[in-house]
Write a structure and sequence with these properties.
alpha/beta, Rossmann fold, binds adenosine-5'-triphosphate, binds magnesium ion
Amino acid sequence: MRIVAVMNYKGGVGKTTLTANLGAVAASRGLKVLLLDLDPQTNLTFSFFPVDDWHERIRNEHTIKRWFDGDAPGREFSLAELVLTPEPVNRLVGHSGGRLDLISSHLGLINIDLQLAAHLGGTTTLDSSQRRFLELHGCLRRGLQDERFSEYDLVLIDCAPNFGIVTKTAIVASEQILVPAKADYLSTLGLEYLAGSCDELKRDFNNFAHHNGGFGGHRPITPEILGVVFTMVQIYSQQPTAAHHEYIQEVKQNPEMPVLHNMVRNSTKHFSGSGEGGIPAMLRHPQKDDVVREFGRLTDEVLGKLGMSAGVIE
Ligand SMILES: Nc1ncnc2c1ncn2[C@@H]1O[C@H](COP(=O)(O)OP(=O)(O)OP(=O)(O)O)[C@@H](O)[C@H]1O
Ligand SMILES: [Mg+2]
């Protein structure tokens, strides 16, 4: 099982679109994929489930908010109890032997960061505050260690555009971080800062775990940036436009920042709106065009970098 967080502080850069489509294409290639929606906006969830259905069936009992809620976040019941199987997309990918499951978010997750922050305070000794830090930041990692998750090949976590505690639990749980970014000034500006914040979290977690003698089985974490994926790239004559090319080159010059070779091009025809009828865009186009083929190559690149391969490209 490979666990990948899809994150960027910057909002609206295509995180959710990438997560939904990457998950769906990987599932159509025969992989067992679990998507975890950690964004209170709940857009990933609504890409697979109609809003009415969510209100009727999912909202009260079957969301990640309930799991984080309470006095002992992540301790009251197993994360595996929250797994949902959206029907439309699975009807489409089932013939390959693949599957796509999802753990739903909740609009109320927005308050959970504050609740979790309150759990971090109130201790009197250094040791106990470090233990609380480990316990809290490590909760999603521990939750995903449930035996029932071992059947998944790939877990993709869609993060909110912030670096709050919920997002940090995703980084701690992940081996790899995929960073969607637009090829513009504001989107590329924050990339180094993001890498620095992830390093800082890794350092703190590992120092505290070491200091506490592997307290509670907290082994060191090693999340790494798998790569920046440029999204919404304007293509002209098979090439990114000059303005986008310039920003892409600038990021590529940074040796610390791996950049994926394949990109997601800007196409409102394909990507605007969330999944219609619960089917992500890249599976809605049976007639494969350039955009769908490009996305297939991006999926291959990501799976290859994760040491996985599945199915045929086209
Ligand atoms: N390649 C693309 N071409 C055109 N439009 C796109 C593309 N990718 C995403 N979009 C559109 O851009 C908007 C933002 O995308 P998305 O919701 O995936 O971003 P996000 O990073 O998850 O945002 P947030 O930070 O709010 O969670 C959506 O309306 C989406 O349909
Ligand atoms: Mg999003």
